[in-house]
Amino acid sequence: MDKLIIHGNIPLQGEVRISGAKNAALPIIAASLLSPAPVRICNIPHLHDVTTIISLLGQMGASLTLDERFNIEVNASNVNCFHAPYELVRTMRASILVLGPLLGRFGEADVSLPGGCAIGTRPVDQHLKALQAMGADIQVENGYIKAKTKGRLQGTTIVMDIVTVTGTENIMMAAVLAEGQTAILNAAREPEVEDLANFLNTLGAKITGAGTSTIVIDGVKELGSGTYHVLPDRIETGTYLTAAAITRGRVKIKDTRPDILDSVLLKFEEAGAHISTGTDWITLDMKGNRPRAINISTAPYPAFPTDMQAQMMALNTVAEGTGMITETVFENRFMHVQELQRMGAQILLKGNTAICTGIDKLLGAPTMATDLRASASLVLAGLAAEGETSVHRIYHIDRGYERIEEKLSQLGARIQRIPSKD
Ligand code: EPZ
After folding, report:
1. Distance, first Cα to last Cα, the chain
2. Ligand 1, closest atom to CA 192?
3. What is the DSSP letter of 233?
4. Is 308 helix (H, G, I), strand (E, B) or coil?
5. What is the Å distance from ligand 1's center to 408 Cα?
6. I need a labelling partner for 232 at 20 to 30 A (CA). Which of 50, 136, 249, 399 fits?
7. Cα torsion for 286, 263, 382, 370, to the nearest 10°?
8. DSSP summary character for residue 323
9. Is the pLDDT assigned to residue 219 strictly greater than 90?
């Protein structure tokens, strides 16, 4: 397994371009199953998770062509297999996103239960309960979700017990071709949910309210073709902003959207960063100063995103003062803490809160990535630490960050990928 070697304590500076959002690209590619016509999706990030969902759709009979810029054309007119196998789903939970489209268009789906992952049990009960309310017959057996509908799904009012991003997305996709109107109450408001709705409306769907907690979908008979440009990745943006803040440097982030990062930008200002923004760019400048500790409580959008929690924890480890970070979304998203402690971080865990007393300098060490955002946090800590840090099992990071060592090197980081011998 590849590893990253980082020589830290270098203030980063320069410009970096943001890729398309992983968590928008995945549902949008899955949603292309809903149309019998070819659709073109641009600004897709070149990530392992994207390759996974592309091969999943290919196994179902969709034909997918990619150009040199990784723009994708999907033609789902010949989809004839409605099976998402465990071998594939276990490597990427987001495969559950084919469930709604398969049921909505073909009335049939046989999708492996995603199972848990490092950050939590991550059940899909909300997805299944809502689909049953729309008339699907769902059996869960031998680790698979076997779902069927007689004719089209029926529109209805769904109240989500929990705010769930992919749960909202699955129901929205299932409702697009359903009979009548579906209202999703207590819907997730993430920008990626809105991006999915915009994509579906481009193909002829009738969705209103995406981005708010009430989404209304009027079922249509069939979707057509279209071209769509995926929105920039707000979590990748936040990660590079953290790289500049933790090394007391300055960075200009391009091809991004500051308007979907309010909660994160405000926290960087609290940490003492000087932030300026334009339509598609953000600059962060620490003016060489040490960051101040910040308090965070993660929650669904527009509150502070859980996907930025590990990165801000790394920032707190070298900040002035004591910061408290509470994780309210996932039950086990502190896997990065023990690895940061091995670099000298002073972090005390009390339930779902991490109390971190900043130290002046972390010391480089060999570390192990456990999940996507935890691995980003270890890279960030390595950028700030004295000496050499190695981050093992970086396949985790390759799932969500396109060319991370290239983009960080552009900012002056001393970082290299060591391919594994095995
Ligand atoms: C999406 O995951 C993202 N993934 C995650 O990003 C992100 O952390 C998460 O939303 C929260 O923002 C994609 O969009 C592909 P949830 P998702 O359903 O949809 C519980 C990353 O790093 N829940 O909003 O799986 C669940 O256990 C990844 O890019 C139920 O109990 O998250 C969790 O505690 C990690 N029952 C909470 O809700 C359900 O049926 C929120 O989960 C569904 C969810």
Report:
1. 7
2. 14
3. -
4. helix
5. 28
6. 249
7. 180
8. E
9. yes
- For residues 309 and 339, give the distance between their C-alpha atoms in angstroms, rounded to a whole number: 15
3-state SS, residue 63:
strand
pLDDT by residue (tens digit) across 104-135? 999 999 999 987 777 887 899 999 999 999 99
Which pair of structure tokens corresponds to residue 414? 């001393």
Name the burial class of residue 278, with classes exposed (0-12), middle (13-18) and buried (19+) by CB atoms within 10 angstroms of its CB.
Answer: exposed
Q: What pLDDT is stored for residue 119 in this prediction?
A: 82
> pTM score, two decimals?
0.97
**Nearest protein CA to atom 28 of ligand 1, as residue:** 307
User: Ligand 1, atom 34: nearest CA belongs to which residue?
Assistant: 330
Q: 369, 380, 278, 393: which is closest to 12 by C-alpha? A: 380
Q: Is 188 helix (H, G, I), strand (E, B) or coil?
A: coil
Any catalytic annotation for residue 42? no
Q: Which alpha helices (DSSP H) does 176-272 contain, by range?
A: 191-202, 234-246, 262-270
- Cite the DSSP H helix spans in 258-361: 262-270, 309-317, 335-341
Tell me the C-alpha distance between 150 and 358, whole Å: 59
The closest alpha carbon to 395, from 412, 414, 419, 415, belongs to 419
Q: Confirm or reject: Cβ of 164 under 6 Å from ligand 1.
A: yes
N residues, the chain: 422
Does position 303 have pLDDT exceeding 70, yes or no? yes
Distance 189 CA to ligand 1 centre (A): 13
Q: Is the dihedral of CA 73, 17, 256, 326 positive or negative?
A: positive
| Distance from chain centroid for Cα 251 | 22
Residue 421 reports pLDDT greater than 80: no
Reported as type and span, the H/E element at residue 284 is: strand 281-285
